[in-house]
């Protein structure tokens, strides 16, 4: 019994299933007989949520009175009657909790009239709660023993008033058909002590990690088949680094996420395609009924992975714009060189002139025989012939470069009087 039923036992309740009806009945009979021997009689069903066996669908049951009471006590009573253990209708129920938090902030008494602005909002929300009775969710998620692939996709999002997470099962059949089903969702009202939206988004990611771990363990889905999505680049950057890089608030939550989901891939999803946005912003019951993004996830989940959102690394603006050719120059060495191979040819000292592009860090090397200014000018001439004329050249105050600067300046002043030279440098944009 321990091996078969222990993971499915919660206090005095047992919940289990099987892919084969005949095998399921056999297990049921064994369980009843085994418990009867110990004096434990199974007496009731514990599903807890509405199930239509004829259509094989789950349905939400919401009982609300026709008269609306505008007090904090009545609102809390209504919230307590909304039984939604797997969070299928949290986009509608989170709005009621946000209303209650606003009442706590306004310090309204239990039976005092609520402010008019909140009363109008509550009247609209309450009038649509009965629409949730029309919610139908397929019990079977198309997960079979011979399915081609089964992936879990989790989405998280936050707003100024709430944050939420939702988990979907994506199943690819042998025939290539793809079905996406909402499995579970969670939502939380934002703390009374306000946090920045990026920190709330991180709280949503923590909520998703807990929910994803729970669902993955329940379904025994392989860890490599789990993908988490968020619409905040900041959260992805936090998760990319070790927790020690961040301050306490961020570090603690990043550490928890990485410990719960060490091998899960975190990716970016645009806000408009993030189903968790429905639960962080809130929807009316009538809006939720036909909200395809919430019930089936973004449309691209039903396509191949090539069509899923991709985030290209943003390059610095300086890497995308054309820059003027500025370079630096310096000497390396000395090194020993030979003019030709073989014996009888003595080695002699030489140096290497390094020309470094200040934009791309590209390096050009020229061999020079000594430290003299004329030798450097020859090397500089070869560099310009091969790479082009730079806009400026930077160096230290070495005697070679100072002397070369003086010679170039003197030669320029002499040659500038020549008309042909003027035309030549004008074509090269030399001023």
Automatic annotation (TrEMBL):
Task: Give the Gene Ontology MF terms in alphabetical order.
Answer: nucleic acid binding
InterPro entries from the entry?
Answer: DNA/RNA_pol_sf, Integrase_cat-core, Retrotrans_Pao, RNaseH-like_sf, RNaseH_sf
Query: Which terms does the UniProt entry file under GO BP?
Result: DNA biosynthetic process; DNA integration
Gene Ontology CC: DNA polymerase complex
Residue stretches making up the Integrase catalytic domain: 321-431
Reading the lineage from the top rank, the first entry is Eukaryota
Q: Which Pfam families match?
A: Peptidase_A17 (PF05380)
Q: Which PANTHER family match?
A: DOUBLECORTIN DOMAIN-CONTAINING PROTEIN (PTHR47331:SF6), PHD-TYPE DOMAIN-CONTAINING PROTEIN (PTHR47331)
Q: What is this protein called?
A: Integrase catalytic domain-containing protein
Q: Which organism is it from?
A: Ooceraea biroi (Clonal raider ant)
């Amino acid at each position: 019994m321990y091996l078969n039923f222990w993971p499915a036992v919660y206090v005095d309740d047992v919940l289990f299933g099987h892919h084969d009806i005949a095998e399921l009945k056999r297990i049921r009979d064994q369980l009843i007989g085994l418990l009867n021997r110990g004096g434990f009689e199974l007496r009731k069903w514990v599903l807890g949520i509405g199930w239509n066996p004829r259509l094989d669908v789950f349905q939400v049951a919401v009982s609300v009175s026709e008269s609306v009471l505008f007090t904090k006590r009545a609102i809390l009573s209504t919230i307590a009657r909304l039984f939604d253990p797997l969070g299928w209708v949290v986009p509608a129920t989170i709005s009621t909790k946000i209303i209650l938090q606003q009442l706590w902030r306004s310090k309204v008494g239990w039976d005092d009239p609520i402010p008019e602005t909140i009363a109008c909002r509550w009247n609209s929300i309450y009038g649509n709660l009965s629409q949730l009775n029309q919610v139908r969710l397929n019990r079977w998620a198309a997960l079979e023993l011979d399915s081609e692939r089964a992936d879990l996709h989790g989405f998280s999002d936050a707003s100024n008033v709430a944050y939420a997470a939702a988990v979907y099962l994506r199943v690819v059949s042998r025939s290539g058909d793809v079905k996406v089903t909402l499995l579970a969702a969670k939502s939380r009202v934002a703390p009374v002590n306000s946090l920045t939206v990026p920190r709330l988004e991180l709280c949503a990611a923590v909520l998703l990690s807990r929910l994803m771990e729970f669902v993955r363990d329940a379904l025994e889905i392989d860890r490599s088949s789990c993908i988490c999505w968020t619409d905040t680049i900041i959260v992805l950057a936090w998760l990319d680094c070790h927790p020690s890089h961040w301050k306490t608030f961020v570090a603690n939550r990043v550490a928890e996420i990485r410990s719960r989901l060490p091998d899960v891939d975190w990716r970016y999803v645009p806000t408009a395609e993030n189903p968790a946005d429905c639960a962080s912003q809130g929807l009316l019951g009538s809006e939720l009924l036909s909200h395809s993004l919430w019930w089936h996830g973004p449309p691209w989940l039903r396509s191949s992975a090539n069509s899923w959102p991709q985030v290209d690394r943003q390059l610095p603006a300086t890497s995308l714009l054309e820059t003027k050719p500025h370079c630096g120059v310096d000497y390396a060495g000395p090194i020993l060189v030979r003019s030709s191979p073989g014996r009888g040819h003595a080695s002699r000292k030489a140096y290497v002139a390094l020309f470094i592009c200040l934009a791309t860090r590209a390096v050009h090397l020229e061999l020079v025989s000594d430290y003299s200014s004329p030798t450097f000018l020859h090397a500089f001439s070869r560099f310009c012939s091969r790479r082009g004329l730079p806009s400026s050249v930077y160096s230290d105050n070495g005697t070679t470069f100072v002397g070369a600067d003086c010679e170039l300046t003197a030669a320029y002043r002499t040659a500038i009087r020549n008309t042909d030279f003027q035309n030549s440098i004008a074509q090269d944009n030399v001023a």
